UniProtKB/TrEMBL annotation:
Coiled coil: none
Residues where L-threonine binds: T20, H52, R107, A126, S166
Reaction(s) the record says it catalyses: L-threonine + hydrogencarbonate + ATP = L-threonylcarbamoyladenylate + diphosphate + H2O
Pfam families in alphabetical order: Sua5_C, Sua5_yciO_yrdC
GO cellular component, one term: cytoplasm
Keyword tRNA processing tagged: yes
Record-linked NCBIfam families: L-threonylcarbamoyladenylate synthase (TIGR00057)
Source organism: Aureimonas jatrophae
Family membership: Belongs to the SUA5 family.
Protein name: Threonylcarbamoyl-AMP synthase
Keyword terms of this UniProt record: ATP-binding, Cytoplasm, Nucleotide-binding, Nucleotidyltransferase, Transferase, tRNA processing
Length: 307
C-alpha cells in the first residue's frame, strides 16, 4: 500500500481491488496520470471516468449532492453505486476525468481502492483495470492478462465479491435515472428513495457523454490538420513548432516534445483558453492517429463539427 501511494503521488498507475471489479487507478487531479489511464486501456475516446473517494465528506468536496443523492449515498456507500452529480466549481479534478462535462461520477467503494483515496486525501480516477473492450477483471491475474507492463503495481485483494461494475444513477429534471444497471437492483434503489428510478431513454436529458457530433466546441470555428495559422486565427500546436505567437492572434502548444500523453492532458485547457466570443477562428496542428492520438482527434473532430 505504501508503494502504491508513492506511485500514485508520482503520477503513475496501479490496479486495486474493489467489491465490483479491479480498478485502474490514477490521481484524478493529475492530467498526465489520467491521460495514462486512457493510454493503458487503449480507450477509444475520452469518456468520463468514475472518481472514487474515501467518504461522503470527500464526495461533497467535488460534487453537489441533492437530497435524493444524499439518501442513496447514506444507504449504499461504501458499495457498488455510482452517482452522477453536478461538479463543484472549486473541485480540483482534471477536465479529462469528466470529459469536459459539468457533472462528475462519484463512488465510495469497498476495499484497497477506498484506502488509497483516503491515504492520498484526493479522488482516484479508476475505470476497470483491463484493456478497452476486454473482459472486466475480477482477480489480479485478470488484470495482468491485459495490463502487464502497462502499470506499475497490482494490489491483490483476491477475487471480487460482485464481479459486475457498479450501478450508475443520474438525476435529471424529471427525477432519478438508471444510467447503468449493476449489483444493486433498481427496485431496491427505488424503494429507498420512495419513487421510481426510470430507465434511460434515447431522448433523455442525461445523454451518454461524448456521443454528440458537435461536442466540446469553443465559440470560434475550428480548423484541423493545419500546417500553420492565418494571422486572424489562434493556434494550437503539437511537437516542435515553428509558429511564433506573433504570427497569429495567440498560440499554445499541446506538447512541444510531441508527447501524446502530455497533449491529452493539455487538450481541454487549450480549447478552454480560446473559448471566447471574441475569438472567431482556431487552427489546430495535425495530431498523429496512433495511441492516444485517436482519442485526441476524436475530441477535436467534435469541436470542429458544424453547429
Amino acid at each position: 500500500m505504501d508503494e502504491a501511494v508513492r506511485i500514485l503521488r508520482g503520477g503513475g498507475l496501479v490496479a486495486a481491488h474493489t467489491e465490483t471489479v479491479y480498478g485502474l487507478c490514477g490521481d484524478a487531479t493529475n492530467g498526465e496520470a489520467v491521460a495514462g489511464i486512457f493510454e493503458a486501456k487503449g480507450r477509444p475516446s475520452f469518456n468520463p471516468l468514475i472518481c472514487h473517494v474515501a467518504s461522503l465528506e470527500m464526495a461533497g468536496r467535488i460534487a453537489v449532492l441533492s437530497p435524493e443523492a444524499l439518501i442513496l449515498a447514506e444507504r449504499f456507500w461504501p458499495g457498488p453505486l455510482t452517482l452522477v452529480l453536478p461538479m463543484r466549481p472549486e473541485a480540483s479534478l482534471h477536465p479529462l476525468v469528466t470529459a469536459g462535462l459539468p457533472t462528475v461520477a462519484v463512488r465510495v467503494p469497498r476495499g484497497p481502492l477506498r484506502e488509497l483515496a483516503d491515504r492520498m486525501d484526493r479522488p482516484i480516477a479508476a475505470p476497470s483495470a483491463n484493456r478497452s473492450g476486454r473482459i472486466s477483471p475480477t482477480t489480479a491475474e485478470h488484470v495482468l492478462r491485459t495490463l502487464d507492463s502497462r502499470i506499475a503495481l497490482v494490489l491483490d485483494g483476491g477475487a471480487t465479491s460482485h464481479g459486475l461494475e457498479s450501478a450508475i444513477v443520474g438525476f435529471g429534471p424529471e427525477g432519478p435515472v438508471l444510467l447503468r444497471p449493476g449489483p444493486i437492483e433498481v427496485e431496491k434503489l427505488s424503494a429507498v428513495l420512495g419513487c421510481e428510478i426510470r430507465g434511460r431513454v434515447s431522448n433523455a436529458v442525461l445523454n451518454a457523454p461524448g456521443q454528440m457530433t458537435s461536442h466540446y466546441a469553443p465559440h470560434g470555428a475550428v480548423r484541423l490538420d493545419a500546417e500553420r495559422p492565418q494571422s486572424d486565427e489562434c493556434w494550437i500546436g503539437f511537437g516542435p513548432d515553428p509558429v511564433e505567437a506573433a504570427a497569429c492572434a495567440s498560440a499554445t502548444n499541446l506538447s512541444p516534445r510531441g508527447d501524446l500523453r502530455e497533449a491529452a492532458a493539455n487538450l481541454f485547457a487549450a480549447l478552454n483558453r480560446f473559448d471566447d466570443p471574441d475569438i472567431p477562428r482556431i487552427a489546430v496542428a495535425s495530431i498523429p492517429h496512433v495511441g492516444l492520438g485517436h482519442a485526441i482527434n476524436d475530441r477535436l473532430r467534435r469541436a470542429a463539427a458544424d453547429r
